[in-house]
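Researcher: Next sequence.
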Amino acid sequence: MTTIEQLEAETRGFRDSLDRLQEALATVIVGQSAVIEHVICSVVAGGHVLLEGAPGLGKTLLVRTLAESLDLDFARVQFTPDLMPADITGTNVVVEEGGQRSFRFQKGPIFASVILADEINRATPKTQSALLEAMEEQAVTVSGQRHALPDPFFVLATQNPIEMEGTYPLPEAQLDRFLMKVLVPYLEKGDLAEVLDRTTSTESPTVTPIIDGPSLRKYQALAREVVLAPEVRDRTAGFVMATHPSNPDAPEPVRRYVRHGASPRGAQALVMAAKVRALRSGRAHIDFEDVDRLLLPTLRHRIILNFEGEAEGVSPDTVLESVLGRR
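Model: Next structure:
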């Protein structure tokens, strides 16, 4: 059992490493501090991230830079309508050695620690589902044989919310496996000017590894030791229950616009993300503010709107803000 002194020392090391990681990413990614913070939080919490934003906002660059900063293997999969599940997971190939033919498993790009699933909503549902087992079980099954994936392992997927022609919306079961859905906003004028200065000159910023795999696994274990007090646990459960329209205590926007609320996995994601935020704040316990600040990115993709909500253009964030406003 970790003593208070050990936990405090580990917390300081945790904060220093993640602060340096955030600074390293900020040298390459301009004006997206909240996005960077949420991505780091998800990775340390051991979850996957769905990045949604218009093209050209640095989503791919962020994931690639994160992999370099973490000193982990990186693979990019460009999702297209003709992409097949075997293109992701790998397949058995025939090899000939010493006059003997046999099958040998050839690993796909999923066998890296950091996976960039670029424009994930452009692939067919059959190919999208190939990620389900990998994201949940950290393994893939090919021809009845199970193959374990690296540890740590996480998927960072991107999608464009503007151009919807030729896309396949992610099913609810797959969305629920992302710990966070992070919205990547447009840059402010000053940030855009800095991007131009950095990207149109002869010098380009580079990053060096900050955290390796064993250290990341240690931080993930440390986050689980953060204390969840009963009152914070009950607040989290109350938030999730308030997203269900059948709940009599749900706010009016939920009862009017929501078809399905957040799942228990959403509550787990909210608690784990809050634990990481608490550690980054120098605390070994979750505060109400940790839960409140992370409610939207951990639950927005778990809210399924009904026909009226979609017809009126109501966003899940609006629904969640009504839930947050009742507390």
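Model: Residues 4-26 form the longest helix (23 residues). The longest strand covers residues 90-97.
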